Amino acid sequence: MVMAIIGTLLAIAVPRYFHSLERARETVLRQDLSILREAIDKYNSDLNKYPEKLTDLVDHHYIRSLPADPFTKLADTWTTEASDDPDNPGIRDVHSGSDATASDGTPFVTW
Fold first, then answer.
1. How many CA within 13 A on the CB side of residue 72?
2. Which of 74, 71, 59 is closest to 30 using CA atoms?
3. pTM of the predicted model, to two decimals?
4. Residues ≥6 apart with Cβ < 8 Å to 38
5. Which residues pair with residue 107 across a beta bridge?
6. Cys-Cys link to 80, which of 18, 19, 91, 103 (CB 3.0-4.6 A)?
7. Tell me: the pLDDT tens digits for 9-41?
8. In the beta sheet, which residues pair with residue 93?
């Protein structure tokens, strides 16, 4: 009887635990993207140009280090979006490099 109760409780708790882990990683991704985008904007405002690569943000001390994408667990999988302005080339935006889908059904590469 005790084992049945423990099994039932685990059947309820384990899926919720994994769901909360997934939501936490989504929150970290949103925060990392916000920090990177803000750093790109500050870099552009200060130097009147976009960074050529994301490591330029670290080299010029706009961020301490390039964060790892919480879904790929690597710092070099970020996908970048180039500037449309031919007079100001460089990285205008950044997205996750993961091909996974968020809990709301949107792909992470569109965030």
1. 16
2. 71
3. 0.86
4. none
5. 101
6. 91
7. 778 877 888 888 999 999 999 999 999 999 999
8. 81
Give percent above pLDDT 70 in the chain. Answer: 100
| Contact yes or no for 79/94 (Cβ under 8 A) | yes
**Cα 80 to Cα 45: distance, rounded to the nearest angstrom:** 19
Q: Is 42 exposed, middle or buried (0-12, 13-18, 19+ CB in 10 A)?
A: middle
Count CB atoms within 10 A of the CB of residue 2: 6
Q: Where are the domains of the chain?
A: 22-110
d(CA 43, CA 35): 12
Other CB atoms within 10 Å distance of the CB of residue 12 = 10
pLDDT of residue 110: 94
Residue with tokens 């803000």: 38
